[in-house]
Amino acid sequence: MQIGMMGLGRMGANMVRRLMRDGHECVVYDINSASVAGMVKDGAIGAASLEEFVAKLAKPRCAWLMLPAAITGRIVDQVAALMEPGDIIIDGGNSYYHDAVDQAAKLATKGINFVDVGTISSTSTCPPWPKSGATAASSAPGCSISPPAR
């Protein structure tokens, strides 16, 4: 399985490490190019821009965002503008759930699937797979997301 991860702070970077350790291909992007370079050294596929990030994802695309809530809505809109019907955007940050419901409805009109997944982790260096629970998703047919196989 391939997944894109945007936001390579502690949680995003550790999620990428675990996904790759379990055999998944990860495309990564962060505004901090050093974070991207570090993940590339670990085996990820790096992207230097948002456009390159989306272009490197196999269709149907799946982009997981681990971003601060204050910028998530704006970035989701930017990512969605580069995606096509059937693609998936996952918000793994701490966005307000009402905003996620609104975002899912807006993206559903474009056929883009949106899932808001609250993600938590432990304080260890590479924590167990984050515990998640979907709180909002589009009703677009064919949207199927399950935890990556271990």
General description of the model:
Strands 3-2-1-4-5-6-7 form a seven-stranded mixed sheet, sandwiched between helices. 34% of the residues lie in helices and 23% in strands. The radius of gyration is 14 Å and the shape is globular. The model is unreliable at 127-143 (pLDDT under 50). The chain has helices at residues 10-21, 33-41, 50-55, 69-80, 97-108; strands at 2-6, 25-29, 45-46, 62-65, 88-91, 113-120, 131-137. It is α/β, with parallel strands linked by helices and 150 residues long.
Order of helices and strands: EHEHEHEHEHEE
Rg over C-alpha atoms, rounded to the nearest angstrom: 14 Å
Strand order of the largest sheet: 3-2-1-4-5-6-7
Give the low-confidence spans: 127-143
For the report, how would you describe the main beta sheet?
7 strands, mixed
Distance between the termini: 12 Å
Class based on secondary structure composition and strand pairing: alpha/beta
Total number of strands: 7
Taken as a percent bin, the fraction of beta residues is 15-25%
Overall pLDDT:
85
Strand and helix layout:
Elements: E1 2-6, H1 10-21, E2 25-29, H2 33-41, E3 45-46, H3 50-55, E4 62-65, H4 69-80, E5 88-91, H5 97-108, E6 113-120, E7 131-137
Parallel strand pairs: 1-2, 1-4, 2-3, 4-5, 5-6
Antiparallel strand pairs: 6-7
